Amino acid sequence: MPGDGAIPFIGESYWAYDLSIAVLNGSVPVDRLNDMVTRIVATWYQLGQDANYPPPNFSSNTRARTGPLYPAALFSPTGVVNEYVNVQADHYKIVREIGRDAITMLKNDNRTLPLSTGAKIRIYGSDAGSNPKGPNDCENRACDIGVLGYGKKTPLLHSSPFLALL
């Protein structure tokens, strides 16, 4: 399954063999399995991934540039599995625009606003800055060092940034 994050052939996949067992013992109906497959395959076709779609340029099994081309196979040729493609481009512009547009002004009780030029604004929390080693440095996105590329396994342990006026 795409995005699994774990390595299925060593038993760490979300479903791995358990889905096959559940279908065979009847605890998951075959109709439900067909529904799962239909949703994946229909999306694959709808997005045109069946024709002229680029192959993956990264491996979730290793961070090295080269590795097994078929990691679950008993024997596999070795080749380039991570091309380290920079997909960030100029996305920082839209991120800043979204951040600017998301700012919420509060009721100006006691004429607190505008802030004087001497006021300090601090941002606290694990999302207060970028991970110095890159947005996806943490294995399985399981750390609290800056903003992550996408979700986390333990969202309850993750603190949100907040502003404080000092």
UniProtKB/TrEMBL annotation:
Gene3D superfamilies assigned: Glycoside hydrolase family 3 C-terminal domain, Glycoside hydrolase, family 3, N-terminal domain
InterPro entries cross-referenced by the UniProt entry: Cellulose_deg_GH3, GH, Glyco_hydro_3_C_sf, Glyco_hydro_3_N_sf
GO MF annotations, alphabetized: beta-glucosidase activity
Domain of life: Eukaryota
Keywords: Carbohydrate metabolism, Cellulose degradation, Glycoprotein, Glycosidase, Hydrolase, Polysaccharide degradation
Catalysed reaction, written as an equation: Hydrolysis of terminal, non-reducing beta-D-glucosyl residues with release of beta-D-glucose
BP terms from Gene Ontology: cellulose catabolic process
Enzyme Commission number(s): 3.2.1.21
Functional pathway: Glycan metabolism; cellulose degradation
PANTHER family: BETA-GLUCOSIDASE, BETA-GLUCOSIDASE F-RELATED
Protein family (similarity comment): Belongs to the glycosyl hydrolase 3 family.
Protein name (database record): beta-glucosidase
Originating species: Trichoglossum hirsutum
